[in-house]
Write a structure and sequence with these properties.
This protein folds into 4 domains: about 30-45 and about 330-400, conserved putative lor/sdh protein from methanococcus maripaludis s2 fold, CATH 2.40.420.20; about 45-55 and about 240-330, Elongation Factor Tu (Ef-tu), domain 3; about 60-95 and about 205-240, Beta Barrel (OB fold (Dihydrolipoamide Acetyltransferase, E2P)); about 100-190. Helices cover about 30% and strands about 40% of the residues. α2 (about 100-150) runs antiparallel to α3. β16 and β17 (about 345-355) form a beta hairpin. It has about 400 residues and is α+β, with helices and mostly antiparallel strands. The radius of gyration is 48 Å and the shape is rod-shaped. The strands form 4 sheets. A 6-stranded antiparallel barrel has the order 2-11-14-13-12-15. It has a 4-stranded antiparallel β-sheet with strand order 3-10-8-5, with no helix packed on it.
């Protein structure tokens, strides 16, 4: 009888144990979640964009004439210091004659022959007029001698004097015409010149271009010796300590920014520095992003407000990241944006209350990429679920995930 009762008790105990194990496995376990507090803290909303530095005033030295740019001694390098109206940044000399085709060569040779014939014709004309002038002068001498004895009339004397003066004028005209013909011959002969230059180049034949402003060389456009056209860019000069930052913002972001807005500049390899917006261009332009998307951009100019010692290692065309403040508050009730999700047309969060997740509608104001301003729905000290998964439901038991 005792054995029978013992078996029954053992069986009952085993059944109870199995039931307990089944209940334990079937009992819903709390979902492990990451929790973050709703807290009051300083908050700001910024427009973040990549920008670049540039020298405010860049002076470009251009070729005043078409010619050949020479190498100068000592050679100039990017970063060299230049003094206004003293430092020679480029030297130019006239170009040598160019090649011409066979037909042009034949035409020029024919023109040269015609020019030589014209010179000979002008020389013969000078000799003819010179001979006539000698005769007119002798006639004038005879007429003057006869006029003293009243052998000829006064009119004959005047006629002889007029012939001599007209002869002198004709001789001067013929000599001038001879000079014109000789110049024409020289011009044609010069056009027939070969494209080479003999002898060393002297300083008298060259044009020295001096720095128009004191500063440093920012860019050497024409580094090698070569022929350039008039107006070609040769060297860019400027003061590296006169820097500003330009950023191409989306037009939708630019309308939120006002001149004078505070800017934090970082991402250049040094400590963040402060700046302010000085100008927003009134017109935009189309820019294609790296992904091939057409975007309407607006150029924004930013000045440094920090001392030059904080950013003196920056130079022209350096990459930076700008954070332009469009809204700021010293004490705002904030919630992490990672806790927000859409519930219909409104925003909501899962607030952890009494160990359960409670879906709570919230109204938010300003937000940035980390936190959002809470207008209503939450209180300081509430804890919310970050990145809620599909396992998190309203009323489900949750438990903070243990930190590593």
């Amino acid at each position: 009888m005792r054995i029978l009762w013992t078996k029954r008790i053992t069986t009952a105990a085993g059944g109870v144990l199995l039931l307990g194990v089944a209940i334990w496995f079937a009992w819903p376990k709390p979902v492990l979640v990451d929790l973050a507090p709703v807290a009051r803290m300083p908050m700001e909303v910024t427009v973040d964009e990549e920008g670049k530095t540039r020298v405010r005033h860049i002076y470009t030295v251009s070729a005043p004439i078409a010619g050949k740019v020479l190498r100068i001694s000592p050679p100039r390098h990017v970063g060299d210091v230049v003094a206004k109206d003293e430092t020679v940044v480029a030297v130019m000399e006239p170009t040598v004659p160019g090649f011409h085709d066979a037909r042009t060569h034949e035409e020029l040779q024919a023109a040269l022959g015609a020019a030589e014939a014209a010179v000979k014709l002008a020389e013969a004309e000078v000799r003819r007029i010179d001979a006539a002038l000698v005769f007119a002068r002798s006639e004038l001498e005879r007429a003057s001698a006869l006029a003293r004895t009243d052998a000829i009339s006064r009119k004959a004397l005047d006629k002889a004097r007029l012939d001599a003066e007209m002869g002198e004028a004709a001789l001067a005209s013929a000599k001038a015409q001879l000079a014109v013909r000789r110049s024409e011959r020289a011009s044609v002969a010069a056009r027939l010149g070969e494209p080479n230059r003999n002898g060393a180049t002297t300083a008298d034949c060259c044009v020295q271009l001096r720095a128009p402003v004191s500063g440093r060389i920012l860019k050497i456009v024409q580094e090698s010796e070569g022929v350039v056209a008039a107006g070609a860019h040769l060297v860019e000069l400027g003061d590296p300590l006169d820097l500003e930052v330009v950023a191409d913002l989306l037009s939708s972001d630019a309308v939120r920014i006002a001149p004078g807005a505070r800017v934090r500049i970082d991402g250049w390899g040094g400590a963040p520095v402060e700046g302010r917006v000085t100008r927003i261009d009134p017109s935009g332009f189309l820019k294609v992003s790296a992904l091939g998307i057409e975007e309407q951009r607006v150029r924004t100019t930013i000045d440094f407000t920090a001392s030059p010692g904080a950013w003196s290692r920056l130079g022209h065309d350096y990459r930076v990241i700008v954070h332009i403040t469009v809204w700021a508050a010293a004490d705002a009730l904030t919630v992490p944006v990672a806790a927000l999700f859409r519930r219909g047309e409104d925003w909501a969060v899962f607030a952890a209350r009494d160990g359960r997740a409670r879906a709570t509608a919230v109204k938010i104001g300003q937000r940035n990429n980390r936190v959002a301003e809470v207008v209503s729905g939450l209180r300081d000290g509430d804890r919310v679920v970050l990145h809620p998964s599909d396992r998190v439901k309203d009323g489900i038991t949750v438990s903070p995930r243990p930190s590593e």
